[in-house]
Design goal:
alpha/beta, Cobalt-precorrin-4 Transmethylase, domain 1, Methyltransferase, Cobalt-precorrin-4 Transmethylase, Domain 2, five-stranded parallel β-sheet, five-stranded mixed β-sheet, 9 helices, 19% strand, elongated, binds S-adenosylmethionine
């Protein structure tokens, strides 16, 4: 007789930075087999179409609008795994880059539930790349730091003070509410002319960006009303940036919808 006993397993899947095409084939395969998908605020909901047979539950926690605490999320993962068996926990970018992925797998394993990881394309690299900014470039930048603007104590990471003294490219996630503090640190290090790029909603049709220097970036952010979710990139590599539209032009030449939403003309080269 066929054994129908549910065997709980949770696969943490990276959903990439926003563009639903920036998903791995392995992620698509896991979604197809899933019986339940629990997903975050940063996940593009178009991706859920790859999981036609799954129950879907939004478990995002957005700043100022916490629909679920991390403890509630952990408990829901256990509950859904025990009820449905194959569960996909879909997380923005890569689950192990400021994604609390390890906390979730540790918690699940504490209940004897199997876990697996499918890495995703992290926004830390893909969002700068989407506007032509390489995080490393020969002769310009030999390393890059990815730093959180909001630690578990809700403060700016002290690593930014160290990074500001280095020649590394610095990529800051969750840093928009600490932009003034970041700018002050760079000014204290006499880096007033250092290029800075800020990209909000990178790789999505509602993407916006500001490119300036340590001296000018705060005024630009205010003028453009940029906010989270955004990536802050500091370093000489920002010089090489392209128009925000290059990404969409390369991929969606025919897609009028994108252009209508961005309120600009396509660049035809
Ligand atoms: C909790 S972290 C999760 C990072 C994610 N695990 C990753 O690898 O991309 C959320 C932060 O990532 C950044 N972020 C994620 N997606 C983004 C996007 N499409 N555009 C700009 N920033 C993004 C923002 O700084 C946001 O506040």
């Amino acid at each position: 007789m066929k054994n129908t006993k549910i065997q709980p397993k949770v696969t943490l899947v990276g959903a990439g930075p926003g563009d639903p095409d920036l998903l791995t084939l392995k992620a698509v395969k896991a979604l197809k087999k899933a019986k339940a998908v629990l997903y975050d605020a940063l996940v593009n909901e178009e991706i859920l179409e790859h999981a036609p047979n799954a129950v879907k539950l939004y478990i995002g926690k957005r700043k100022g609008n916490h629909s679920h605490t991390q403890d509630q999320i952990n408990d829901l993962l256990v509950e859904y795994a025990q009820k449905y068996g194959k569960v996909v926990r879909l997380k923005g970018g890569d689950p192990f880059v400021f994604g609390r992925g390890k906390e979730e797998t540790d918690y699940l394993e504490g209940f004897g539930i199997k876990t697996a990881i499918i890495p995703g394309i992290t926004s830390a690299i893909a969002v700068p790349a989407s506007v032509g900014i390489p995080v490393t470039q020969r002769t310009m930048s030999e390393s890059f730091w990815v730093i959180t603007g909001t630690t578990s104590a809700r403060t700016l990471s002290n690593d930014i003070k160290l990074a500001a003294q280095s020649t590394a490219t610095v990529v800051i996630l969750m840093g928009m509410s600490k932009l003034s503090e970041i700018v002050s640190i760079y000014k204290d290090n006499n880096r007033h002319t250092m290029p800075v790029g800020i990209i909000q909603n990178g790789t999505k049709k509602e993407a916006q960006q500001a490119i300036g220097t340590i001296e000018t970036i705060e005024a630009m952010v205010e003028a453009k009303k940029l906010s989270s979710p955004a990536i802050i990139i500091i370093g000489d590599v920002v010089h090489g940036h392209k128009s925000l539209l290059t990404y969409f032009n390369e991929q969606f030449m025919e897609d009028d919808f994108i252009y209508q939403n961005l309120d600009i003309e396509p660049i035809i080269s």
